[in-house]
Structures are given as C-alpha cells and as structure tokens.
C-alpha cells in the first residue's frame, strides 16, 4: 500500500470516527460501521458479531451489496468471527475453503458467497465485545497484513461507539421501564386472568358511585390495592384515601382515631383532635380487617353508615360526614355472624357490593405478568439494570401454590433481585419452598439424591417455620385466626411472624 493510500484511509477513518461520535442509536451505529468498513477495504460485504453473555450467543449483523442490514444469532465461538471475538486475535484469510473454522451456514443464511475475509476484534477498553469481518475484497492482491492492522485499529473506535450506543439504549430502556411502572401504578391492578378481569370490571363499575364495598379474599390477594384503585377511579380521587387497620389499636384508641375527641374527653386528651372521618371529608376511608372491629365500634360505625353523621369522643355536636367507606377482611364474616361476633345489621350495610379477590393459585395466568412487574419495580428500586426471569424459574413460580398470595410472590422476587448474581433470575435465586413444592426436580437435591439442608441454622429454622405455617394455613383454608389457634399463638403474633417470613 502506498503512503498516499494509507494517508487517505487514515483521513477516512477520522471522518468515520466523527460520524460515530454523533450517533447513539445502536442500529444506526451498526449500519454506519458496516458501510464504512466496506468502503475502507473495498469489500463486498461486512458483518459484525457482538457477544451476548446473558444468552450465551453472538448477535450477528450483516450487510452486503445493498444497504439493508440482516440480523441473526449464532452460538458463542462459532465460525471464524466467533473465534476472533473470543480470542481477540485477528485473521487474514484469502481462501476460506482452506480454513476449517469457516462456518458455511452463515453464507446459507445470508445467500452470500464468501471467498476471502479479514476479521478483527471489536474492543471496548480492555475487553473484547465482539468482532468485525470484511468479506471479498476487490483488491487484486487480496487482504494483506497491513489491512489487518488497519481493521484492528478500526476495532477500537467502532467497539467504543457500539458499547456507548448500547449503554445509552439501556438507560433509555430503564427510563421507559420506569415510565411503564409508573403507568402500571396508575393502572394499579396487574392481572388479566378471567377471574381478575371480572373483579376489576365490578370495581370499575362501582367506583364512580358512593356505594360501600366489602372486599373479601385471603391475605395478600390485593384487597388494599383494589380499595386504592376504586378510590383512584372515583370522582373522589383528588381527596384523601385513608386506610385504617381495625386491629392495630385498642378499642378506645381506635374510637378516637376514627371519630376524634374533644379536649379533656379522657386522660391524656390535652387538645381537640380530628378523627379520620373528619379528615377524610370528600374522600374514601378504607377499614381494613373489619372483622376484628370491637362490638362498641361496630355500633358506632353502623350509626355513621345510617345517619352520615357522628360526634367526637367527649363531644355533643353532630358532625356531618361525606366519606365513602370501603372495608376488607380475610376472615369468614358469615361465620362471625353465626357466632354473634359481628353485627348482622352492620354486615348488610357494608355488604352492599362485595367482591372476592381470587387467591393467586387460582389465577396461574397472572403469575408471569405480576413477576415481570415486580422484577422491574425492584430493579428500579435497588438501581439494578432490568433483569429477566429464566423460563425454568418462571415455571417454578407458576407451579407453586402461593399461600401468601401476591405478597409472597412480591417478596420472593424482591429477594431474588437483591441476591441473584447474574442479570437473569434462576431457580437458585428463589426461596427453597417454591422449588420444593413442584414436580420439577428442585436444585437443592444433590447428586446423591439427598436433600441439602440450608447452610445456616437461622435459615433452616425459618424454612421449617414457613413450611409449618403454610401447611396449617392450607388446612384451615387460609383462615389466619384458625391457623393461629391451631398453632397455639395469638393472631397478632402469627401475623407478625408471617410478615417476617415473607408469607404476608
Ligand atoms: N393485582 C396486583 N397488582 C400489583 N400488585 C399487587 C396486586 N395484588 C397485590 N399486590 C401487591 O401485593 C401486596 C399485598 O397486597 P395487599 O396489601 O393489597 O393485600 P391484602 O389482600 O390487603 O392482604 P392482607 O389481607 O394481608 O391485608 C402489596 O404489596 C401489593 O402491592
Ligand atoms: Mg390488607
């Protein structure tokens, strides 16, 4: 090559580099590199293979005569280009039929007839990210060692431009994913199974009215999520949504929490305080775990529902209230009615419209969408690049019975997002009991067929507790109070332990 020719090439390379610096769309960058390399080496075609470690493959882009870019995938290390991508050592070959590494299938795929080639690694810093290949030069002397040196040099800025574009697009993807999560948040409810669609349909129809709604369903099925959605879909959405947990406080404190109190109404009432029914004017009050409301509060609540007015504790003035009441429980209210633990008249007032959130085991179709949603949500929370779920891990998730319902699924995914070493969640990243429960051989079965005990004592104890509680819950049909009784503990205690163990 004459000095003038190499000078021209160098000038061309600088010009291409400038163009690459101003391009961030990965497809546009690939196209620019493919076309430029064809020109630089007077070649008939050019291809680029990029290493995709997650899927153990090479992503291949190819351009021949026309400007169209074809794309396909190859196994890692396959063909001359695969070998250069993995070793980082460039190759000149003026007769491919003499090189056993030449992979004919690529020509079959592209319809191209390769005779000679020049291939060099694409670099980003000290790493090889793939390789670039120029095919069939028009030069009578064929490809030369000088050409290889030049392609090696080109591999630096070309690799950097590709990597920069990929990083840019993954940031864009993360931004889009965040927007999607935000949008989903407004959609509120994930789930397109038949049963969920029916429940969502009722919720949407009842949302614009002032009707009281009773939300039923096992723990973790999404009763509170649904209550928030009903509020959001109602004309009250600009006003407060106030959630009150009816078991969190003693009956007296709860009374003052709901209705407020006057100064001096009881010891410690140093100042007047407004209750939730006053603070929530124009909005929605969500009474969670209504089945646990004390008898005296049941009576007071019934009056509010009937008369739409109340008095603060220790007060005598009637206060009008315009709140919409939504209530939820995972207890069997009909049984509580029979036992006399829950007032019938209150039950009928609350139960104007009732809907039952189906347990997750009865809507297997929703699991993948929910899991993908939680992956995105938690990746964004812990600032990890958006991860994927391996199909085998997804199969485990879909086959598990989920006694803790959506909450348990969410906890399992949150844990996996934090613990998974790779950007793909495998069954090894899931809690033990999920894999144990399925037909597919779980990964904790060693070569000898013996079950491996969790490594740490605390982990083993937690594992036992989780299984024990889950089995008892299954026996009582998900009834938490019954389960607590069977296990000889207080309901609140069981509730706390279940939360700790990620079962609720
Ligand atoms: N359909 C859904 N879409 C998105 N997230 C959901 C859905 N259902 C439940 N979740 C999530 O699962 C968790 C449990 O939901 P929620 O608190 O509404 O359950 P619950 O029925 O009120 O449970 P509990 O009876 O134990 O109070 C929450 O973190 C919620 O965000
Ligand atoms: Mg709840």
TrEMBL record:
Q: What is this protein called?
A: Response regulator of zinc sigma-54-dependent two-component system
Per its UniProt record, what SMART domains does this chain match?
AAA, GAF
Q: Which UniProt keywords apply?
A: ATP-binding, DNA-binding, Nucleotide-binding, Transcription, Transcription regulation
* Ranges for domain Sigma-54 factor interaction: 189-418
May I ask which residue range the UniProt record assigns to the signal sequence?
A: none
Q: List residues traversing the bilayer.
A: none
Q: Which PROSITE patterns match?
A: SIGMA54_INTERACT_1, SIGMA54_INTERACT_3, SIGMA54_INTERACT_4
Q: Which organism is it from?
A: hydrothermal vent metagenome
Any one GO molecular-function label of the UniProt entry: sequence-specific DNA binding
GO:BP terms for this protein?
regulation of DNA-templated transcription
User: Any keyword Nucleotide-binding?
Assistant: yes
A Pfam family that this protein carries is Sigma54_activat
């Amino acid at each position: 090559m004459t000095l003038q020719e190499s000078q021209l090439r160098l000038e061309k390379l600088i010009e291409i580099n400038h163009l690459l610096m101003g391009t961030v769309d990965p497809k546009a960058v690939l196209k620019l590199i493919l076309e430029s390399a064809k020109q630089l080496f007077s070649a008939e075609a050019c291809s680029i293979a990029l290493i995709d470690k997650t899927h153990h493959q090479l992503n291949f882009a190819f351009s021949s005569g026309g400007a169209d870019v074809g794309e396909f995938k190859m196994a890692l290390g396959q063909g001359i280009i695969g070998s250069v991508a993995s070793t980082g050592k460039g190759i000149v070959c003026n007769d491919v039929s003499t090189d056993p590494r030449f992979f004919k299938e690529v020509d079959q795929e592209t319809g191209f007839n390769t005779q000679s080639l020049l291939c060099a690694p694409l670099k980003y810093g000290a790493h090889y990210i793939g390789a670039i290949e120029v095919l069939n030069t028009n030069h009578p002397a064929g490809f030369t060692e000088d050409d290889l040196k030049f392609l090696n040099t080109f591999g630096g800025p070309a690799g950097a431009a590709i990597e920069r574009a990929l990083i840019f697009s993954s940031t864009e993807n993360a931004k889009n994913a965040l927007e999607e999560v935000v949008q989903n948040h407004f959609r509120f409810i994930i789930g397109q199974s038949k049963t969920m669609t029916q429940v969502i349909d009722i919720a949407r129809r009842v949302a614009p009215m002032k009707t009281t709604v009773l939300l039923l369903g096992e723990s973790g099925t999404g009763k509170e999520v649904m209550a928030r959605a009903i509020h959001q879909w109602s004309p009250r959405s600009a006003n407060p949504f106030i959630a009150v947990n009816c078991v969190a406080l003693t009956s007296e404190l709860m009374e003052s929490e709901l209705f407020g109190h006057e100064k001096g109404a009881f010891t410690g009432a140093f100042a007047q305080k407004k209750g939730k029914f006053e603070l929530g004017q124009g909005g929605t009050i969500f009474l969670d775990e209504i089945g646990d409301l004390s008898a005296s509060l049941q009576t007071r609540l019934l009056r509010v529902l009937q008369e739409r007015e109340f008095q603060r504790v220790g007060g005598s003035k009637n206060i009008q209230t315009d709140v919409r009441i939504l209530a939820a429980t995972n207890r069997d209210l009909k049984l509580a009615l029979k036992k006399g633990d829950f007032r019938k008249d209150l039950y009928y007032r609350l139960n104007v419209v009732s809907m039952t959130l189906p347990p997750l085991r009865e809507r297997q179709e929703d699991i993948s969408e929910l899991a993908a949603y939680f992956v995105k949500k938690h990746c964004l929370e812990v600032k990890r690049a958006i991860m994927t779920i391996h199909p085998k891990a997804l199969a485990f998730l879909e086959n598990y019975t989920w006694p803790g319902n959506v909450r348990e699924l969410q906890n399992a995914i949150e844990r996996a997002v934090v613990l998974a070493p790779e950007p793909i969640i495998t069954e090894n990243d899931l809690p033990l009991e999920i894999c144990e429960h399925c037909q597919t051989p779980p990964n904790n079965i060693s070569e000898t067929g013996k079950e491996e005990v969790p490594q740490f004592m605390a982990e083993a104890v937690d594992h036992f507790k989780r299984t024990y509680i889950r089995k008892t819950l299954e026996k009582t049909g998900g009834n938490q109070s019954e389960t607590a009784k069977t296990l000889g503990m207080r309901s609140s205690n069981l509730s706390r332990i279940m939360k700790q163990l990620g079962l609720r």
